[in-house]
Amino acid sequence: MIHILRKLSRDLPAMLGLGIVLFVLVLAILGPLLAPYPEDAAASHLTRRLRPPSAAYPFGTDNLGRDIFSRVILGARGALSIALTVVSTAMLIGVPLGLIAGYRGGWVSEGIMRVTDVVLAIPQLVLALALAQLMSPSLESAMLALSLTYWPFFTRIVYAETRRLSASLFVDALRGIGAGTSRIVFLHILPNALSPVIVRATIGLGFTILVAAVLGFLGMGATPPAPDWGLAIAESRTYLPRAWWYATFPGLAILITVMGFNLLGDGLRDIVDPRIRRSR
Amino acid sequence: MMPVLSVRGLKVSIRTDEGMAEILDDVGLELERGRILGVVGESGCGKSTLIRAIMGILPRGATIDRGEVWFEGENLLAFSEAELNDQVRSSRIGFIPQDPLLALNPVFKVGTQMLEVMRWHAPDAKDPTGPRGGARRKAHVARLVGLLRRMQVPDPETALERYPHQFSGGQRQRLLIAAALACAPGLVIADEPTTALDVTTQHQILLLLRELVAEFGISLMFVTHDFGVVAELCDDLCVIYAGQTVEKGPVQAILEAPSHPYTRALLACHPDRATTFLGIPGSVPSPLARPPGCLFAPRCTDARTLCLAGRPPQGLAPSGAEVRCVQFA
Amino acid sequence: MLRFVLRRCILVLPSLFGLLLVTFLLIRVVPSDPAMALAGDAATPEQIERLRQQYGLDRPIWEQFAVYVGKVATLDLGESAFSRRPVAVDIAQRLPATLALTFCALAISVFVGVPLGVIAGLTHNAWPDYLLRVFSVLGIAVAAFWFAIMLQLLFSMELGWLPLRGELSPTMQRPPRVTGFMVVDALIAGRFDVFTDALRHLVLPAVTLSLGGLATIVRFTRAGVLDTLQQDFVFYERAMGYRRRRLVWIYVLRNSVTATVTQIGLLFGGLIAGGVVVEAIFDWPGIGSYTVQAILTGDRQVMLAVTLLVGTVYAVVNILIDLVHGLLDPRLMERA
Ligand SMILES: Nc1ncnc2c1ncn2[C@@H]1O[C@H](COP(=O)(O)OP(=O)(O)OP(=O)(O)O)[C@@H](O)[C@H]1O
Ligand SMILES: [Mg+2]
Under 8 Å CB-to-CB from B153, ≥6 apart: which residues? Predict the structure, then answer.
């Protein structure tokens, strides 16, 4: 752990990513304390609609007179909790399936991997949209739909790692000294497969924030008056080009957050898989 | 007579993460016209770097700090990259690489690769009066097929249409020799061209090279770490240790009476005349931290305090070889 | 060569079968009343009853699956609950617009991304490389819908250089439909004003759609070039006096794009998904906006058809990708 951090600290882009991620995390936790107008999560002030950026409202105000700066800060919590829920649910589904498929072999493995292929063949966004619609549009179904589309990535990775490890000498040795299957899988294979899973999860967090924003933008995710970044951009379209700030700042928030996760994920991957590092 | 190739006091260092690595410290050699010069040394002593310096293709971060490379009366170090490409590589200096599989581009036909070189560097490439376009290409193909036949590549007509992986190792090495000769250079440099081959194939290739030198009137610089190959093929010898020329002279003289302790140790290790199977104790000093004094002193059985005082100068041994050792200073 | 292609085609059959099975399960088994689900929310009881018979929903499940596969195979994809037309007809009408957009986006990604990736690889750890790396991270992290709006804001609303939405200006008369591709039809009709107008409409959506792919291609090409430059044959080719430009852009590049080509296959998912958003924002009359419309109105027959279409396209694209791999690297073709 410490050695990973030390290596990470030498990688400038990855440190930038880590900084952004921590910053967004702080915003998510302390958002209501940091935002200048925390009540603007729901309130509306029709007397100050669509004001351009100023000292009092650094990012301007929206069509209901709410401070966009505050709403961008308040939106971090929603974005992160959606991403964390989705990615951890996807991991809960995907990792066990990958372990089973990788360790068992035979038709069980074949079946799981074929389903994985099929789900991977359909673009995440399209599948998530379809599923969310099937389950009647709401934030919860959007999150469930995203989880149901993201698990195959984890299954693939864990499957490959499990395959590699269970063919390796040290698992043979463990079997030789009579270690049970569950012991081998949970104590020896899983910890070894964990690093690529963490890398994928980091990149997945960024990706999920992006797709969740699209869902919000299409009206299939967060519902008004939630301070959702994607939703804000959708609402802003009526007021363009006059209120350029309305669309600009929530989008920048998405961009920076996703970039943070990607930079961090790339950095972690370089450490976990030094083979790729050479070609970076 | 003026040598075809002469390297004097060459020093090359590479900037690495750990500091400046002095890959070559002081290399000198002469190759007379029509002769075969063997360059011998342990792995990592800088043989390939020497070749890269001569050809002007040093790795990133490498600099030539000192020295001269004279080729047919011209100082190659004064050539620009474009001039080297236009006037020297392939057209006047042919190159035979070490690993015949890795050296060929795997996704292009052998013929495509060889004709690419001839297109720019064959003797008629810059001749405005000769045939052009398709006719010139046809002439190139004909020359290549002839060369491949001479190299005893099976089915030379169809060989050009095949991919590198469709040949055996020995055949690939023959292809590369043909490629080196394709543009009729006066000098050919070979970097351990037989190391990757089995003994029989190695022997055949050496015989072939020997014949080609006479037949095509070329001079050959042949890098190897195998004294057996040197004895079989070469006229002159240059022994390199840790980026320094430690002994050079006629092969006959050096093999009969090796003067430098390193040469003696190397010869003692050779299976044909092994007195020991242990090799030379110790290892080549890291190019990052070269000891003061004679670079071989830490491994030398005859080392004295004088050896640690400074780099020993070049001296003449009784055998006629030039030797870098305090014994002959 | 032919064997190679046939083999690949046979290899995707299980995936296509899986796709049919999953969609079948989603639409027939998961909802409590599939007929009601198929007909959509606005359907009358008669319509539902007709669907029930049409799809044989009263028969055993295996038989139903067989009927379903038969219908899909004959392109009978049902009727859109929204447009009340056969879905296959709707799709056929909208497909060219999407294909044109996807093709342009892919072309931009490849023809800009590959050279930029090569430049990044050649200037490893110098400023062009750093710049392109930052750019490629940004390109992957940016939300396409936001970027589209920013482009509209700048180039359409502020500067007025390019049209805001649609595939043709409302004042333009549509050329007669021959191929369905607006640009091609305009040329066939000899209407150069329509042609340039259609091209101008393509620019912003295509640029938006190309962004994610562009970034990915830059990344992978760069990694490929860095990898190739380490190979022995590059030194050999330099020692043999290859021309610098030809060495890089022919001999190195062809060895470097294998991973990039694989990525282009994977990109298709992103292109289709991105197409959904981009088409929605630019009012592009293609499959993407059709999908959004279907999702927003709960038109399940259309969603089903689009899912099948996308899955099939994905499979076909992957066959093509394998083929390109085979053409790029003779060793692969022989192994098959
Ligand atoms: N690009 C580089 N950066 C840093 N060090 C290098 C580089 N290239 C070579 N070296 C170092 O230079 C020394 C000489 O390398 P070189 O390849 O010239 O040896 P060699 O005599 O050809 O060995 P071999 O017989 O194994 O081919 C080695 O210690 C090697 O580690
Ligand atoms: Mg070497």
Answer: B159, B167, B171, B174, B175, B178
Cα C261 to Cα A258, B292, C96: the distances in Å are 25, 53, 24
Cross-strand partners of B66: B11
Specify the pLDDT at position A1.
Answer: 65
> Residue B43: inside a domain, yes or no?
yes
Measure Cα distances from C219 to A249, C12, C272 in Å: 27, 28, 21
What is the Å distance from ligand 2's center to C130 Cα?
33
Beta-carbon separation of A119 and C22 below 8 A: yes
Query: What was the pLDDT predicted at A277?
Result: 41
pLDDT, average across residues B174-186: 92
Report the 10 Å Cβ neighbour count for B168.
Answer: 13
φ, ψ of residue A31 in degrees (nearest 5): -40, -60
Residue A278 has pLDDT above 50, yes or no: no
Q: How far does the CA of residue A167 sit from the closest CA of chain C (Å)?
A: 25
Residue with tokens 């011209």, as numbered in its chain: B74
Q: To probe the interface with B, which of C236, C324, C331, C334 has the most B CB atoms within 10 Å? A: C236
Give contacts of A262 with chain C, Cβ < 8 Å: 137, 140-141
Give residues with Cβ within 8 angstroms of B36, minimum separation 6: B209, B210, B213, B219, B220, B222, B233, B234, B235, B236
The residues, any chain, with a CB within 8 Å of residue C319's CB and separated by 6 or more, are C5, C8, C9, C12
Residue B47: which domain range?
Answer: 5-92+185-279
For residue C71, give both structure tokens. Answer: 């219908």
Q: Identify whether the C-beta of residue C27 lies closer than 8 Å to the C-beta of residue C304.
A: yes
ipTM of the complex: 0.90
Tokens of residue A33, six digits: 């304390």
Average pLDDT over residues A24-41: 81
Rounded to whole angstroms, the Cα distance separating B238 from B319 reads 14
Q: Is C154 on the interface with A (CB under 8 A)?
A: no
Question: Residue A280: which of C130, B148, C317, B129 has the closest Cα?
Answer: C130
Contact between chains at C233 and B88 (C-beta distance less than 8 A): no
Indicate whether A45 belongs to any domain: no
Give burial (CB, 10 Å; 0-12/13-18/19+) of B60: exposed
A92 domain residue, yes or no = yes
Kindly report the CATH number assigned to the domain that includes residue A190. 1.10.3720.10
Percentage with pLDDT > 70 across chain B: 97
- The CB density around residue A110, as the number of other CB atoms within 10 Å, is 13
Domain count, chain A: 1
Question: pLDDT digits over C149-195, tens only?
Answer: 999 888 888 887 888 888 877 787 787 787 878 888 888 888 888 88
Contact A230, A213 (CB under 8 A): yes
* Averaged pLDDT, C31-57: 69
The verdict on residue B292 lying in a domain is no
Per residue in A47-106, pLDDT (tens digit) is 777 777 877 778 878 777 788 888 888 888 888 999 999 999 999 999 999 888 887 777
Selection from B184, B185, B234, B226 nearest residue B209 by Cα: B234
Domain C87-297 has CATH 1.10.3720.10: yes
Q: Is C123 on the interface with B (CB under 8 A)?
A: no
Where in chain A does DSSP place strands (E)? Answer: none
pLDDT greater than 80 at residue C36: no
B chain contacts of residue C241, beta-carbon cutoff 8 Å: 84-86, 88-91, 117, 120-121
Interface test with C, best of B87, B105, B177, B221 (most C CBs within 10 A): B105
